[in-house]
Specification:
The chain folds into two domains: 135 residues; 186 residues, no CATH class. The chain is built from twelve helices and five strands. The strands form two sheets. Strands 3-5-4 form a three-stranded mixed sheet, sandwiched between helices. The protein is globular and about 70 Å long. It starts with 17 loop residues before the first helix and ends with a helix.
């Protein structure tokens, strides 16, 4: 077997960036090594999900205890001082649990990210899978495949709708775009890298497809509708945020870091907008009644995040909308439609 080497590249291997090494390995490694990469990701996912479940169990237990303490404070008003003290203690425990698990998750992310990068570097330099990776126990999804009878029939759900369209955008100069619309029962079904009870072959093929195109031009994207709050996903712990949380982001910044970055960009952008407002605005509209807020996005704004820990999506467009979207008709000059136009412009770059 030929050793993996760059052709006509005079740079030292130590000078190669991780994304270059990763792309080369994905394009040149054999199926066995590719399968080991996906299996390693699945193993990391299981470790992270176990920690998240432990955290959620503790948080849920303390939250219920907090609710019980509140109810007792309403029923036993004569013991208000004691119940208030109990409530304070529980809230402090809840705060400490969140801080503790947050630190554990960050430490786990750093360790997994380093292990993953070391594995890819060894594959790039030696064309071999590190022995400590091969000696690890297989991920649970593989064990389930082995222990499950081949004759087991999986319940078939309703057929999901999948249609493709060709559209033309523009007035004088039109651009052609191909669109594929898929109907899914949930975000987990489409975006989760590894499901709780997966079909191993499907997980492998979907994950491999996502990784093969991670640093290429054939990227996949998803559009999510969000509120004006730049930290909407974090504050509401949306399903999308929970999906991102399940797997360590091994290539890019974590979702929290990316969203916090958009918050700073929103503040800077809104300062420019405020200067562009008509002079009469500050006099005609009372501050308490004005909808303009420097910390919030405007309807039609677009936030973009990049991901390697999702399936079927490398880029996520977060389109800011409001209740006007619920109306039957939206004018072509509506801010939301202008936001959709921005998505197509960004996707065609």
């Amino acid at each position: 077997m030929n050793e993996l080497k760059f052709v006509n590249d005079e740079r030292n291997e130590k000078e190669m960036t991780f994304d270059e090494k990763f792309r080369f390995v994905m394009e040149n490694a054999d199926s066995d090594k590719l399968q080991m990469i996906v299996a390693k990701e699945a193993k990391m996912s299981e470790e992270r999900i176990a920690l998240i479940r432990a955290r959620d169990f503790e948080v849920d237990r303390l939250t219920k205890a907090c609710e019980t303490a509140v109810n007792e404070s309403l029923e036993k008003r004569e013991e208000l001082e004691q119940t208030s003290y109990n409530l304070t203690v529980i809230n402090e425990k809840l705060k400490q649990v969140n801080i503790n698990y947050d630190l554990q998750l960050k430490a786990l992310s750093e360790r997994q990210r380093q292990e993953y990068r070391d594995m890819i570097t060894v594959m790039f330099e030696t064309d071999t899978v590190p022995e400590y990776i091969r000696s690890e126990s297989p991920p649970a999804c593989v064990i389930r495949k082995i222990t499950t009878e081949a004759t087991t029939v999986r319940p078939s759900g309703p057929t999901l709708r999948d249609e493709s369209f060709t559209i033309h955008i523009g007035t004088q100069v039109k651009t052609t775009h191909n669109i594929r619309i898929m109907q899914g029962n949930s975000l987990v079904e489409k975006l989760a890298a590894f499901n709780d009870d997966p079909n191993p072959e499907h997980d492998f093929s979907q994950r491999l497809y996502t990784l093969m195109n991670l640093y290429g031009s054939d990227l996949s994207a998803v559009v999510l509708l969000v509120d004006r709050d730049p930290l909407f996903h974090i504050h509401n712990r949306t399903q999308f945020f929970r999906i991102c949380e399940r797997n360590t982001e091994l290539h890019f910044d974590d979702i929290e870091v990316q969203l916090n970055s958009t918050t700073q960009q929103t503040l800077q952008m809104n300062k420019v907008r405020k200067n562009e407002l008509p002079e009469s605005t500050s006099y005609d509209i009372p501050t308490s009644c004005s909808k303009f807020d420097e910390q919030l996005c405007e309807v039609g704004d677009l936030m973009v995040t990049k991901h390697s820990n999702l399936n079927n999506a490398h880029v996520v467009f977060h389109l800011v909308v409001d209740k006007t979207l619920e109306s039957d008709e939206i004018a072509s000059r509506n801010a939301i439609m202008l936001g959709v136009r921005k998505i197509f412009q960004a996707a065609s770059m």
